[in-house]
Design goal:
By secondary structure, the protein is α+β, with helices and mostly antiparallel strands. The protein contains eight helices and five strands. The protein has helices at 3-14, 18-28, 30-36, 80-100, 147-160, 175-185, 194-202, 217-224, and strands at 43-46, 50-54, 64-68, 105-109, 125-130. The protein has a five-stranded antiparallel β-sheet. The protein is globular and about 55 Å long.
Amino acid sequence: MSQEQLKALQEKIKNMSPEELKDFQKKQCIFCQIISGKIQARKIYEDKKVIGILDINPGNPGHTLVMTKEHYSIMPQLPDDDVADVFMAVKALSNSMLRSIDAQGTNIIVANGIAAGQRAQHFMVHLIPRKENDGINFVLPQKTLNENEIESIGNKLAAALGGSAEKEEKQPLSQFAQIHENKNNDINIQREPAQKKTMKQNNPKPEIAEPKSGINLDDISKILGVR
């Protein structure tokens, strides 16, 4: 496409109504063509609103793309019901990976916007089955912000949601958090007070029923790396 053609296209897009723009994007979207059956893909999930296909350039075997059949470019465009439908499908597919291809965990990734790494015009969720030492590394930098910066960002985010930011007081670490911190930083775990411990003995923990979501305790253990 020449520079003149590109400028003409950009000008045409600027003058489009939201409905015209969506229709234009849909015609250009390869994933909409897959959904309509014009392009072949290996479907592994489909319902009235959602489809799941295998990525042809997977991060790991079984890498699945889960998306709405209706064209939306980014997450904020999705109706709430569609968001729920997409992630219910992701939940079911994640569970199937644990059972069928011996995945030890899954990464659930949304690239929402170009700055976040989104390449496709169609909003989707990447679901990647994981195993130990599979060569995939997601490394997030650990930046440091001072209290004023944290409070300022919190106020802006809360205001955009129509609420107000509340400053949380630091609470003592839960035993789970203490164990996790102990593992990473080699610190001592604080013991619970004797009185609290006695109360626990007098009120034994009720028996936990199997989850009703279709995921059993073995699946949860596999995700958490418990052998």
